[in-house]
Amino acid sequence: MKLSTFMKTPAFNMTSLVSSLFNSKKAVLSSRIESMKSAESALMTFAMNRFSDVDIMLHPHPDGSVSNQKDADSTATHTLRIFDTKIPQSAVPLKKGLNGSTECQVYGHERKKKRNEKAADDDFVIHGIEVTSHIHQEDKTEAPLVLLHGYMNGALYFYRNLLGLSNQCFGGTVYALDMLGWGLSSRPRFETTVEKKKRGFTKKKSEEAVNDETYAAEQVFVESLEEWRKAHKIDKMVLGGHSMGGYLSVAYSEKYPERVERLILLSPAGVPDDQKVDVEGRLKEASMSYRVVIGLVRKLYDKGVTPAAFLRTLPERRGRTMVENYIERRLPAITCPDERKNLSEYLYTNAALPGSGEDCLNKLLKPTAFGINPLVYRIPSLKVKHVSFIYGQNDWMDPSAGVQAKELCDMRRIEGNDDIPEVQVYGVRDAGHLLMLENWKEFNNAVIMSAGKEHRLPRHASKPFKVAESLSSNFFSPPRWGNSKEEEVSVSS
């Protein structure tokens, strides 16, 4: 029977077929969202049970938050809350559709709009975790810590750090957010509105306009974070960002320096100038298999194909296996099978949900994580007084870039410009790019020192290596691509 004849038969109903396919896709989406929520909840339990630095018991509350207590009769030491914050679509510079709205691929699929309802009035959702420590009540006036994750990660990549950090400073309050387009935050279609603005950053002792697309992509995350801050009535914050989250933290600090008390860059992407780095020389030192893979990645990258998009093309079983192997290879410090399983589920479902924020990657970074507008030249112009870099000892992000930024700032401060940031560079032992998971205690101490609270650390605390002036020390392993577990092509950063 010809297809045209078949389609005319009573048994065939195109509307039913389309409806069935749509409902099936919707069911898969809902299932993955629930799976990610379940993994998030499990990682929160690990945070409360194993990474609080106190002996505790868990006590759930009717509102969904959880507190921990030293025993059933004592005062809770921490409260951990999952929350969603609505921010107006109109504040985020994304391209609007014909009806004036920005289509959202995750939140918003649960209901149909009324015929006369204005879609432009819809809100985006920023998903996050808030941890409140009740140990140091006298420090509540301090600025809270806000943590931003890296590419293809989410707020719960900091699950090992949240409680310990809240114990020592930040007014006892630490937030970790799923940035717009990732995790359980809204995932709008990522098409920026390019507004031609003249913005110059010092580069090679001259100023040149920032690429319009890069600036537009940065502003999506900058404005969504600013709307979140306003919604929570936070006057000033200590802002910490990992990898690409570090890059975007700098972009936010450029526009809203009055809201950033201190900036903490955790193995940040986009710092060095690739014109000053022998990229091809490093590739020649790498293994043949790595060079082949990186060549393919470059071609796909130029076409806008992201690692997460590639993962979504694989059968689910194969995709899950790939992520599980990645966690096992990159994070040997996680020895608990249940912990590793839930982190793998968290990472896989994050990548398997519809792509959104990931689509900005090639507008911000080059394939080898160099910035299109390198941060090394932008940091000296920040109006934030204190900036810290924290790298892993075996990090594939090059610590010398952070040291170069420090040297540029120190030079200008010596010349008498006191408005230039004071920069520190720290190294965390036995850790790579995912330092917050690999050596969480020393990572926490590095963050606390970056906040200017070193005096609050116990005497026996393992303190990070502090770079004095240059990388003359042999503390950091030389960045080498494709010759170690840390340097293999990864599915996230």
Automatic annotation (TrEMBL):
Query: Which Pfam families does this chain map to?
Result: Abhydrolase_1
Give the transmembrane ranges: none
Q: By its UniProt entry, which InterPro entries does this protein fall under?
A: AB_hydrolase_1, AB_hydrolase_fold
Q: Which GO terms describe its molecular function?
A: carboxylic ester hydrolase activity; lysophosphatidic acid acyltransferase activity
Q: Which GO terms describe its biological process?
A: lipid homeostasis; phosphatidic acid biosynthetic process
Q: Residue limits of the AB hydrolase-1 domain?
A: 144-439
Q: What start-end ranges are recorded for coiled-coil regions in this protein?
A: none
Q: Which PANTHER family match?
A: PUMMELIG, ISOFORM A, RE40534P-RELATED
Q: Which family does the similarity line name?
A: Belongs to the peptidase S33 family. ABHD4/ABHD5 subfamily.
What this protein is called in its record is AB hydrolase-1 domain-containing protein
Protein's organism:
Chaetoceros debilis
Q: What is the lineage of its organism?
A: Eukaryota, Sar, Stramenopiles, Ochrophyta, Bacillariophyta
